[in-house]
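Sharing a chain and its predicted structure for anyone who wants a worked example. Both blocks are below, sequence first, tokens second.
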Amino acid sequence: MDARFNLFANELAVKFGKRFANASTVIEHSPLPKATQELVSLRASQINGCAFCIDMHTKEAAAAGESAVRLHLVAAWREATVFTEAERAALALTEEGTRLADAHEGVSDETWARAREHYDDDQLAALLALIALINAANRLNIMVRNPAGAYEPGMFASMRG
């Protein structure tokens, strides 16, 4: 399977990609736990059906020491016992923030309150930015049909600068 358009070979797309990667660096260096970052990215990517990002975030999480059990259960986190209450709050916010068109109210007050219970202002800002960023990445990759399977952990580190 080939992508419709090579985002990595187009000068304008590469310039955008570098800025996109730099934005993700702000989140990576935030106080939001790295495990939560990868779980959130993986869950949004699953909802959106972005194979490229599912591949990337599964491999990045595994390389960072995330267990296979937790990675396999992210899609069914509500019924799984392997996630903390804070992670569950982040996953709920991720789902509602990703599925905005599915609910007239967007993110419910209950979900927002649960997130506020577990995350301080800096963590919440990082979580919100991450949800927005991964949804944008999913859309870019889906539109060009970037194939999954070839991602290697750390592959885009050189794009940050």
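Comments welcome. The chain has one domain: 32-150.
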